[in-house]
Amino acid sequence: MLPCSKGFLRQLLIPILILSGLTMAPQVSIAQATLQTGLECGDTCRELYLTKPYLQGNDVLELQMRLIELGFDPGPCDGIYGPRTAAAVHVYQKTNQLPLTGRVGFLTWFSLGQGCERPVNTQPSAPPRGKVSIVIDTGKRVLTVMSDNKVFRQFPVAVGKPKAPTPVGDWKIIHKGYNWGDGFGIRWLGLNVPWGTYGIHGTNKPWTIGTAASAGCIRMFNEDVLQVFEWVEPGTPVKITGPPHWITKIWRRPLEEGCFGPDVVYVQLSLRKLGLYPAPCDGRYNNLTALAVRYFQASAGLAATGEVDEPTYRLLQKKGGISVPPDPEP
Questions:
Q1: Residue ranges per structural domain of the chain
Q2: How far apart are CA 68 and CA 259, in angstroms?
Q3: Rounded distance between C-alpha atoms, residue 55 and residue 44, angstroms
Q4: Is 320 helix (H, G, I), strand (E, B) or coil?
Q5: Is 245 a catalytic residue?
Q6: Overall fold of domain 6-28+247-319
Q7: Which residue among 74, 189, 250, 290 is least packed, with the fewest CB closer than 10 Å?
């Protein structure tokens, strides 16, 4: 039995959460996170050609889908660069007066994107004057630049496929880069997601904007990312909204301090909805998350361990009201 009311404890908890270590989250390097999870933005632009074994990947699938859009038949859209896809590339190159190599290199990728680049609409006469932040809605596939929490400009984007979703949560820009590679377009804005390499960037596949096509990153038209790049700095907040997700095989794993991942974001979002977690939902199970979990458990009559076990998951789902993600595809 708690010695005082739940309302009193909640009022007491929030200041404690704010004061007890907002800067004490465990630090996880991008290299360490990528090594542990194997997740990173896969928007590469490799040269595709016929070889044995056949090349496979998301870039092949996007090539096949684009060829179909343009009226060329690459065979099944299976992400495999086989003879039929190579033959379709050869016909495409001949039709567009490109070198007849049957290989998809820079010139062919560039040609495939022609006619898709969105011309920049009337540009603002000046950059945002207020504090800049970014909100990305993965459902609507829209990136909104905010100025002092007011909408300043909106841009269409491409987000992650269901098998490689864009990470929902509260992030920050930690790196600004130029020309990371053809697949990343002309600008890169890296995010501090602790379980992989994700960012906002341009693309050489502009036909994918407005779809769920990437390996988790946020793609923009090159003309658009040029503007956003100039308006943000390292530390700019980036809030990504949408259905929660997780990494295959770790959902409902026991969570304790030091864990990180989209399942931690789910717990933090649930606690925030209950008014128990005022900090960023950044996927890092730090002392603030543990303290909020401990209070939630104590107020619900569970063992107040500060660690998330199966009974805690079930009760968070029931009380937090955030739907559990469907089983991931194998």
A1: 6-28+247-319, 58-104, 130-241
A2: 43
A3: 14
A4: helix
A5: no
A6: Muramoyl-pentapeptide Carboxypeptidase; domain 1 (1.10.101)
A7: 250
| H or E segment and range at residue 177 | strand 169-178
Q: CA of 252: how far to CAs of 9, 255, 263, 300, 311, in Å?
A: 27, 8, 7, 19, 10
One-letter amino acid identity for 318?
A: K
Residue environment code for 119-135, b if the CB has 16+ CB neighbours within 10 A, otherwise e = eeeeeeeeebeeebbbb
Q: Show pLDDT as tens, one digit a residue, over the chain (330 residues).
A: 333 444 544 444 444 444 444 433 344 433 333 333 344 555 556 889 999 999 998 888 888 888 888 888 999 988 899 999 999 999 989 898 889 988 998 888 878 877 766 655 545 557 899 999 999 999 999 999 999 999 999 999 999 988 889 999 999 999 998 876 656 678 999 999 999 889 999 988 888 999 998 889 999 998 899 999 999 999 999 999 998 776 555 667 899 999 999 999 999 999 999 999 999 999 999 999 999 999 999 999 999 999 999 999 989 988 887 776 555 554
> What CATH code is assigned to 130-241?
2.40.440.10
pTM above 0.85, yes or no: no
Q: Which two tokens stand for residue 9?
A: 């404890």
Among 41, 90, 175, 201, which one carries the catalytic annotation? 201
90 part of the active site: no
Which tokens go with 265?
């974001």
- Active-site annotation holder among 41, 45, 217, 281: 217
Using an 8 Å Cβ cutoff, are 320 and 312 in contact? no
285, 256 contact by CB (below 8 A): yes
Report how far residue 166's alpha carbon sits from residue 103's, in angstroms, rounded to the nearest whole number: 30
